[in-house]
Amino acid sequence: MAKTSTEQYRTNAKSRAKHVRDNSPGGKYAHSKQYKRDHAAARESLRIKSSKVDASKQPDGSYKAESRKTNRGRGGRLRR
Length: 80
What we know:
The chain is α+β, with helices and mostly antiparallel strands. It is built from 4 helices and 2 strands; from the N terminus they run αααββα. It folds into 2 domains: 1-30, no CATH class; 31-80, no CATH class. The chain has helices spanning 5-11, 13-23, 33-45, 68-78, and strands spanning 53-57, 63-67. 2% of the residues are buried.
């Protein structure tokens, strides 16, 4: 039988530390005002109106329109 989330965080220190980081003030997606200004400008220049599309920052510093689901999903697995 699978562990409950409570049991997982109690027995796995690394998992617990990440959980605490993500749920502390600021949270997982806390961003500075400068970041938000840059991101809003990118959304405007890409003419993104939908909430299902995100301005995804690329390794070279540029932005591209991408599914929000794809962009956020990549972050969880590859950026631990």
